[in-house]
Design goal:
297 residues, alpha+beta, globular, disordered N terminus
């Protein structure tokens, strides 16, 4: 299911260096209960995200979100650069609000959400857990937006695994039609994007079922882990190789005792949760493509 040349945004520094960068399957991986917690850093700290003034009286502060996840309210305070004659940046908060609205028109609710931005506030990644799903999993949407043209507004479909809160994506981020020009219609583009993502819910569920049935020999599982971190240019942080090995062969949850591709994908996404938010989301989005490309014996 789930994920190359490194995307252009990876070449730009987003905070502290990481080894590299949507089971969207260990819930990922998108990060346990950390999404309910937000770390606030005093304004004098370096690398803080610029925020716009808020009318309500409150202490002046900045959000260092490269290493922490933000709420929607905190995301609304991230400043948006002024538009130019050829480029109109879309506020991160506006993307989130319009996407939630688009799902609402289709009777799909958002039950959980988390966001992270780069240290300069120019690039945003987020995850929305949806109200629909299937046995043991809930569908989720991964999104990203940039103000500096490093990448276009993009989304990917994924899921959250209940038992371990792992996040898994069905593939890499897909641009939402048009560029951010002055004639760009956010509502129209997101409406088309949501319809496209909904059509991927069925294939995603089918992929999970296939992976749950796909048995792996010990040799095959070890080879896949080796290929992911050593042989392939996948960009997965190499320091997590041992962690993935341990989570697969000594699973924490009974649901992953079976030696299957599903258990292995959850070992990856569980390990990815140890990364900071943005590297975690990027690694999770690449995982499905890697696992789909291999042919275990």
């Amino acid at each position: 299911m789930m994920l190359g040349a490194e995307p252009p945004e990876a070449a730009q520094p987003l905070g502290r260096a990481v080894d590299s960068v949507v089971c969207w399957l260990s819930r990922s991986s998108f990060g346990g209960n950390a999404m309910q917690e937000t770390n606030l850093i005093e304004q004098e700290q370096p690398g803080a995200v610029l925020i716009s003034p808020v009318p309500a009286p409150a202490p002046t502060m900045t959000l260092c979100s490269y290493g922490a996840k933000l709420t929607r309210e905190e995301l609304a305070r991230v400043a948006t650069p002024a538009a130019t004659a050829t480029h109109k940046p879309i506020p991160h908060f506006a993307v989130v609000e319009k996407l939630i609205e688009a799902f609402g028109f289709r009777q799909i609710g958002v039950v959980r959400e988390e966001y992270a931005v780069s240290s300069d506030g120019m690039r945003m990644f987020g995850v929305m857990d949806l109200s629909s799903g299937f046995d043991g999993c809930r569908f989720a949407i991964g999104l990203r937006n940039s103000h500096d043209k490093s990448f276009r507004l993009s989304c990917t479909v994924g899921l959250r695994v209940f038992v371990c809160e792992n996040l898994a994506f069905h593939g890499e981020y897909t641009p939402v039609l048009a560029k951010h020009s002055k004639h760009f219609s956010l509502e129209d583009s997101l409406a088309i994007g949501v319809d496209r993502m909904q059509r991927n819910f069925g294939p995603l569920k089918q992929q999970v079922e296939e992976w749950q049935a796909l048995q792996l020999s010990t040799a095959s599982a070890k080879l896949l882990i080796y290929q992911a971190f050593i042989e392939e240019e996948s960009g997965f942080p190499k320091h997590l190789a041992r962690r993935v090995h341990d989570l697969y062969f000594q699973p924490v949850h009974e649901e992953f005792q079976a030696r299957t591709m599903w258990s292995l994908s959850n070992a990856f996404t569980s390990a990815f949760k140890e990364l900071e938010p943005i590297p975690q989301y990027k690694a999770t989005a690449k995982l499905a493509a890697f696992l789909q490309s291999v042919r275990p014996q």
